């Protein structure tokens, strides 16, 4: 079980809590991008985009590499596995609850069908 209170998990969910940063991660899943390329689709300054990138970097979700004067970003997917594991606990919780509901509804349908058969005689 993944620990509930870890600095890494907190920083991952903080980073994922912003739509701009999630969009940047989605673009990086397609391949490396420069900071300018990541900033381009958004109505923000390069400095503002760099702040978003820094949050992603601090969470370990991306790696920045300097090539001459160009900063190139790469997706680091392993921290997403940590978040996925944590969320998986709740997926199991809801799956179990829905399985119980399914059984109850099937039992109720079966009782209603048996009751109707008894009334038809």
Describe the structure.
InterPro entries: ArsR-like_HTH, HTH_ArsR_DNA-bd_dom, WH-like_DNA-bd_sf, WH_DNA-bd_sf. The chain is mainly alpha-helical. It has a single domain (1-121), classed as Winged helix-like DNA-binding domain superfamily/Winged helix DNA-binding domain (Arc Repressor Mutant, subunit A). The chain is 67% helix and 12% strand. It is built from 5 helices and 3 strands; from the N terminus they run ααβααββα. A 3-stranded antiparallel sheet has the order 1-3-2. α2 packs across α4 (46-58).
In short:
The protein is mostly helical and 121 residues long. Helices cover 67% and strands 12% of the residues.
Per CATH, the class reads Mainly Alpha
> What's the total count of β strands?
3
Based on secondary structure, the structural category is: mainly alpha
Q: Work out the radius of gyration.
A: 24 Å
In DSSP terms (H or I, runs of 4 or more residues), the helix count works out at 5
Q: Please report which band the strand proportion falls in: under 5%, 5-15%, 15-25%, 25-35%, 35-45% or over 45%.
A: 5-15%
Question: What are the SSEs and their pairings?
Answer:
Layout: H1 7-16, H2 19-28, E1 33-34, H3 35-39, H4 46-58, E2 62-67, E3 70-75, H5 78-120
Antiparallel strand pairs: 1-3, 2-3
Helix pairs in contact: 1-4, 1-5, 2-4
